[in-house]
Structure formats: structure tokens, C-alpha cells
Amino acid sequence: MPPTVLIVEDTQSLAMMYQSYLLPTGVNTLVASDGATAIAIINKVQPDLIVLDVMLPDMNGLDILATFDPENCPQVVVLTGHATKEIAIQSIKLGACDFLEKPIEADRFRITVNNALKIKNLKQTVSQYKNKYENGKYFDLIGSSKQMQSVYQIISSASASKATAFITGESGTGKELCARAVHQASNRADKPFVALNCAAIPKDLIESEIFGHLKGAFTGAIANRVGAAGQADGGTLFLDELCEMDINLQSKLLRFIQTGSYQQVGSEKVVKVDVRFVCATNRDPLVEVESGRFREDLYYRLHVIPIELPPLRERGQDIIEIAEALFVKIAKDEGHPYKGMAGGVKQLLMQYSWPGNVRQLENVIRNVLVLHPEAFIDIDMLPALPENSKKAIEPAPMSIQTKPANILIDDLPNTQNDVKALWLAEKEYIERVIKICSSNIPKAASLLDVSPSTLYRKIKSWEENE
């Protein structure tokens, strides 16, 4: 629905001219010639933007502006033919987002209105995000780190869309919780969320699990089955470990995604549903495509909104936030009188690399609470953690850390004048690797041992700073 703009102007010819200025933009326009009419329209319609003249026949336009709640003030652009510095300052203090002096050119008027509407949309997005993200928690996801805030923002920005979200991350990072957050943040939150683990279902049965079957369609089909696609109608279908799906079934899934329709096993009838897809994998999907295990056309059809979940070892203080939440939750489930953790426990949790991520942390915490009835958890209550997992955060020995790097000692700085800013040296090195890889970003990322999204973010930041 196009936004509504209320023009409050007592001169009819000017009001009609402002309306004509906005015709190419497609917005709805309403006109009020005095303050009383304007207030009545504002209370009834709640326009997205008010273009407000200061000099009205029955009151001063700024008096109308002063009546708005500062915390919930609509977007207002103030107009006046008697511009003074004092009026401009007073308008902004009362909550106006911009100020225009008559006479106004058409382009300037349109640009100002367009910018004001963009600010309104941005405020709504930020407000929705703040309402959902409180105390380091976004729906069932926990963590205040910058990496997770970025994930929350992507989910919030994509909440109104039907576009497919493609979640990647190591095993145990919380991909299903992320998928549920995508669903809960959307306008489908009151509809079904159906999760299907493609790795846990035999390939002979997965087509039936997704699309359903008719009674007698195959041995063991003793009754009709709707299938996950039908169950998720109107809601969200989450396909976990998608790269484990049999290559032959991927073509049927692609057609389903493209058309929104499918056939149950044993049926010739076409069923059409309204489903939003969320997919997840702990593998690198591009590697799977290159190896021929995952269809390239399916990858590009699904890889619309990528969401990369960081491993727990890279999330800093999030480890303690998650641990505290898990202690409270599991203690309640187990009837445990948990009160808190000792400082040494927190330090050890922060130092460990958690190769199994949040899932491993949860198992450790459950182990502690089941075996130790004490209210305060001390370091000696923690089970032994595998030593070899710490290699994930320890530097490799020099003899094996660098393969032939082909970096000559002459390439390194010898004097202070030779020293470059670290970001510039990194930029030049990454650009060289990308050039060697013929601009293939995923391949360059693989050689540099980082994710492709990391390189894309760096390239974007360099472009913005040029």
C-alpha cells in the first residue's frame, strides 16, 4: 500500500501544486486548508507524512506540531513563507524532520518528501528490531556480540519478505533456532513452522516426508500422509542439512520452489501451497556444487538471504550469556537449585574452543547439573573437556603453520618508512589472492581460510571508504 501524505496548506492553488508535484511518486495525498481539519484527518487517518504550513487561518502550524507525542511523532515537513532561524530551530525541536521555505521547486519538494518517508521506514525497522532484541536475546537466540547483532539485523530486515533464507554454520551453532527466529519475525509467525532434517531420513522416504503420499503408494504406506510441504502451508518449511538431500530429489524440490506446487507420491493431482523456505547446512554449499553433489540451479534459487552463524569460539562474552541461560533452563527442567557460577568456571568456559559449539556447551552444563546438586557451580564440577579441541584456538607450530608462502624477506618492511597501515597491507594481499583466483571470491576465501561473506564485507567496506 502506498504511503499517505497530508498537505496542510490554506492557499488552495499551492495545495494543488504540491499535490501535482507528488503525482509521479505514487503516494496518496490528502489536503487540509486549516488546523482543525488537519487535526481531524490526523486522528482519523494517521498519515505517514505531514507537510505542514506554519501560517494557517485558525492557528499556528507549530501548535499542531507541539501536540504530537515526542516518542511517537509522525514525520513532519514544515513549510513557511516567512522563514527565520528561530522558526526552523523551533520546528526541529518540536519533532519536524525537515524545513522548507516557500517558494519550493518541484524536485526539491519531491526529494524532501521522499527522504522523510525513508526516515519513517527506517525508524519502524529500528523500532521493530529493538522490540524483538532485548537483553542480549532475539527470540530464542542468545548473544550480544557484534556477529550475532548482525545476524539479528539480517533476520529483522528480511522479516517482511518471502525470500528464502539460507543458513550456514558449523554443527551445533543453532541453525534451527535461527530458522525459527526467521519464522517468528515474519508475518507468518502465527502459521506452522515445519522442520525437516534431510540427513536423518532415508533417501527412499524423504520424498514422501516432504510431499506426502497416498495410501498404497509403496510398501508400508498404510494411510494417506500430508507431508511437510502440506503441513507448512501458509507458514515456513525448514530444510535442515539440505546438502544431504539425494541429487535426484533436488530437481523435484527445485520445481516445487519455483511453482509452489507438487504431487504426492502415488498421486497425479497437483497440490499448490504457500510456503516460505528456510534452508541450512553445515557444509560449504559451493564446494558441494563444485563436487556435483548439489545442483547449481537449486543453490542459486535458495541462496537469496545468506545468514552465516559464527562458531561459539568466535563469539566472546556470548559464551557466558548462553551458559547462564542454559544453566537456568536446565536447572528448572531437572529441579536443580542452581544459583550461579564461580569466576573460575566462567574463565574456563571462555578459554575453551567448543568444537561442538552450543550443543556441546549444553551437554556439559546438563552433565554438571545432573551430577552435582550444589547451588553454586565450581570449576572442579566441570567434566574433562577433550584437549585436542583446543587446537582450534592455538597457533600451529611454525614448521607447519605456513606452507610455502612465497613471501620474500625483501617484501617485508625494513625501515619505518616502509611500514604500511595494517588494513592497507591486508587489502593488497587479499586483492592479490582474488586476482590469482581469477576473481573467484569463494575460491579465494577457501585459500585464505575465511568465509566468502568475510571477503564480501571487506570489499564493500573498501569501496565505501574510497
TrEMBL record:
Coiled-coil boundaries: none
InterPro entries membership: AAA+_ATPase, AAA_lid_NorR, CheY-like_superfamily, Homeodomain-like_sf, HTH_Fis, P-loop_NTPase, Sig_transdc_resp-reg_receiver, Sigma_54_int
PROSITE patterns in UniProt: RESPONSE_REGULATORY (PS50110), SIGMA54_INTERACT_2 (PS00676), SIGMA54_INTERACT_3 (PS00688), SIGMA54_INTERACT_4 (PS50045)
One Pfam assignment: Sigma54_activat
Keyword DNA-binding in annotation: yes
Positions of the Response regulatory domain: 4-117
SMART domains: AAA (SM00382), REC (SM00448)
Modification type 4-aspartylphosphate: residues: 53
Keyword presence, ATP-binding: yes
Residue span, Sigma-54 factor interaction domain: 141-370
CDD domains in the cross-refs: AAA (cd00009)
UniProt name for this protein: Sigma-54-dependent Fis family transcriptional regulator
Organism listed in the record: Pseudoalteromonas fuliginea
